[in-house]
Structures are given as structure tokens and as C-alpha cells.
Amino acid sequence: MARERRVIRPYPTLAGLAAFSRELVLRVAESEVPEGGRLVLPESTYSSVPITLLVPGADDAARASRISALVGDAGLAPGAVEFVVFAYSQRLRLAEKLFQQRVTDGLPAEIPLAIGVDRADALQASRKGAIIRAFLVLAEEGSRKPLTPWRRWTWLSCAEFRIGVDSGTLGITPIPLTPQMRQEFRLPRGTMRFIRLDGSPLEDAPDADSVQIYVDERLLGSLVANHASRGGRLLQAQLFLDLGWAIASHVSLQSADLPPSYELVENSLLGRFIKAVSSEAGDDGPTVVDLYRELRSDRSRFMALVEAGLKDLPQTILGSMEET
Amino acid sequence: MRYPTLGEHETLSLASRRLLGEHVGIETIAEWRIGTGPKWDPAAIRGIAVSLSGRIEAGGGQSPDDVEASAANAVYEALREVPAYVLDEQGFWRFLSLAYFWDFIVWRQSGSFDGGNPARFATYIDGKSLHECVPSRMYLRGRISSVGHDGSAATAVSQSTDLWRSHILRVITGYSPKIARALVFRQANARLATDEIREVAKRLNRAQTNLVPMLLTEEEAAALVDEAARGDGSRV
């Protein structure tokens, strides 16, 4: 199920400042990211791409007078408000200040946040990408009034931008299915595998959380230790097929919206799965175009081609049957 | 920086072999990745590992939790100049876990290694979650204690790995060293029970959602924590 996060705040006087923040734009190389947007970059350029925050306004005077007016409308003294920009790395638990200035000192049209490889640590850590947040904050303690921000360092409005890395691969690692997770997902003790898709498999540039494959913790432990054994290879093949079914089932619900050609889904979870199948199948196996065509016309045949792509599978099955 | 890494499957397979008593030379197996700048020098980390091994061998009923805390600042200092893109790399933490911290991690998390099930011990060595993997959580604790401060927060509270992991590193407080330290020092001065500190941490997290908490001074951070601890809602 798609999730939506909303921030509910108790300050009705800040609508003007929120509107100002929504007009901020992050320029990353040649791309412009609107407030709330996310840009996915190739790993090779992530740590060197120039990043600039664009502040709306025709010129310095227009910007200064607009912000002062909005701060005044919010019932606050313009001298008490600052504009602050932070970069966050979730993985390294880093929040680094990139810019801080009183709004009465004026705001430039462009605020450089990263130039070349010399950049904040939070903008170097690419695994989970970075978040950039630009705040208007109350920099002085006010007097307490209901529904009015008064505490120093309360944020008045915030613009958020996300930058991520496109690894271009499926990159899925099974997660141990623990007793607590069974409870959370309401799964019986006998369940060995469980797949969850977060969002549509047609969405461009899926992140690491787009698909989660849970495997019984004991079974996963054994798989990790014996991944090259017949049983290990069978289980890995089964998980790959399970993922194919999960994606195909999800897509079939949206089949009316399926784009006409593979190129249009190439960077989605579906596209990457198809590419992985085709690569696994090798030169004499189905191409990405064949696989996508089958998916659009007949899901069962698509899965039959996926299975055929796992070239070692028949031998592994036969070998395991002979063992018994 | 040129730095060593280990793959995930390789790490777990090497770990399983080590648990069976096999000697595996990790430093010769690692893949060295090329970044910008000089080659990473492991001397300082090696020194910490030797010291930790000495403490384990000395025995004497030491608390593994407190031994971990005592080395946190040293781990941070040893890695202070390592670029963020290396610290972000799972494979680097896997290498540190197996090459230098193995004996300590197995001693520290002994219950999870009993039975040799990788699904139970992987989180402490695989570098996926930096607040669970033992060397990376020590680094984070050392960094939060030391940046702009004297590092004393790392050891201010005995038996506090859970406080650090659950109420600092996993939550919004982890981004704000001053608030994290204020929480630790408050706990050092008047230790709250597990349920009580959980409630305080919840209130503290809630209070921070309306703030830019990184901007608070040490005094403001201490006041915020005090208010969360009082739970009177006067300012939080």
C-alpha cells in the first residue's frame, strides 16, 4: 500500500511562509527539483554534482520585502527569523548546517550548497542518499500565545528535497522473518517466505525499500551458510520466482496502464526484474522485449519464460530428487 | 581513499568458518576499493582491537556493555579522518568487524552467536544498520559524544547500550549531539528505569518535531531534556 506522510502543525498563521517555502527549488547539475521532489543520480556523479538552492524573487529587494511582509503577516518580527539549510544522511545520522542567515540581511537568489567533491559529509554518503531541508526558523524566544510559534528554533516553514543514487540493479537482500515480524504481518509459524512491495513496481528508480523479501530466520541462516548447496540454489530460485509472481500480479492489476514498450519501464522494479531475467538467461534466452511483451499479453507465459531463464534449475531439481 | 571491503555473503561465510574454529586471514581476502586521497591506515584500529582483546583475556567479570562504551571514543578518533563515503560503505564495516573486532563482537554479543545461525548474528557484523553493527555503533556513539565536547557522554552511564541504540541512534535525537548528550547526562545524574526513560524519549522526540533541534545550544538542549523528563508539557 502506498504511504503518505503529512506534517500537522498547530500554527494557522504560517500559511504565507509555507507558500514561500514551496517555491524553493533545488538545482542539481542541470536538473531542477521542486519542493518535496526527489532526484535520482548515477553513483558515479553523486559525490561531485553541484547543488544550489534557488530562492524565489525577481531581485534582492523584492525577495527581502516579500519575506519581511510574510513574517509580519505571521505576527512575528522579521529580525527574529532566520533562513537555515541542513543536509542529512539518514544512515550516518548526520545533520550538517550548510547555510544560516537572518532574513533581514536579505537572501541571495542562489545559495550554493555543494561545489565539486568538497562538500558536507552528509552529501558524500550515497547509500541511502541525502535529504536537504531549508527552514525558516524563529531565532528568538517569543512570548507564549496560543497557536503562535514562540519557542526559539521552532521551524516556521520547511522545504524538503531528496537526492538518491540509482544503482541500476535489483539489489535485494532477504530479511530474516522473526517471530515479531510474523506477529506484525499476521503470518502463521509455517510461513517460510513473504514478499512485500512498497508502491507500484512501475515507479521509476525504486529505492532499497521498494521490495522486501522475508525468509524464515532459521531457513535464511541456513541459506546464507549453504548458498551453493542444491537446497540453497533451489531456495534462491524459488525466491526469484516468488518475486516475479509478486511483481506480475501487482502489474496485472494495473495492466490497462502498462506502457507500450520496455524502454518506458526500464528503470522501474519491473524493468530491472526483466533485465535480471534476460541477463540470467543469456544470449539464447528471451530478450527484455520478449519478456515485456509476454507480460502484457499473458502473465502465465511470462512466468514460464522467467523460469526458463533460470538455466540451472532443472538440473538442480533433478539432482535433489535423485538424492532422496 | 583506498579502503578495504568485504562482500555480504563472503562475510557471513567467513564468520561461520571462524565460529567453527578455522583461522581465516581476513586482511588478505579484502577487496581494496579506490577512492580519492591516501590509502587507509589501519594502525589505530588495530591498536584498539589489541587492547579490547587484552581486556577480554584479562576476564574479571567486566561488563561487555561498559567495555564497548569505553572504546567508543577511540574508535571515533581512529576513524575521524576517514571520508563519509567510506563510512557509508557496508563492506568497510564488515571488514572492520571480521579483521579487527571479531573476538570482541563474539564476546560482546555472545548470545547471538550461540548456535552459529547467521540470521541471528549478521546484524552485528554486516554493516547494514550502522546502529546495530558493533564497530559502527561504537563509532556513532564516539562521534556524538566527542564533536564539540570532551567525549565523556560515551561512558557517563553504565550499561547504556540500549539507551544509546533505542533512544539516540535509532531516532531523531541521533542527529543532534547536544540533545543526545543532555539525555545521557540526565540519565547519569538521575537514572530512570527502562519504562520511564522510554516515555521521556518519546516526549523528547515529539518535542523535536516542531524544532530544528541541531540549532539548540547545550543549555537549551539540557532544558528541553529536563522538560521532557518532567513531562509537564510546559514547554515541550
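qc> The CA atoms of residues 24 and 220 of chain A lie 46 Å apart.
qc> done
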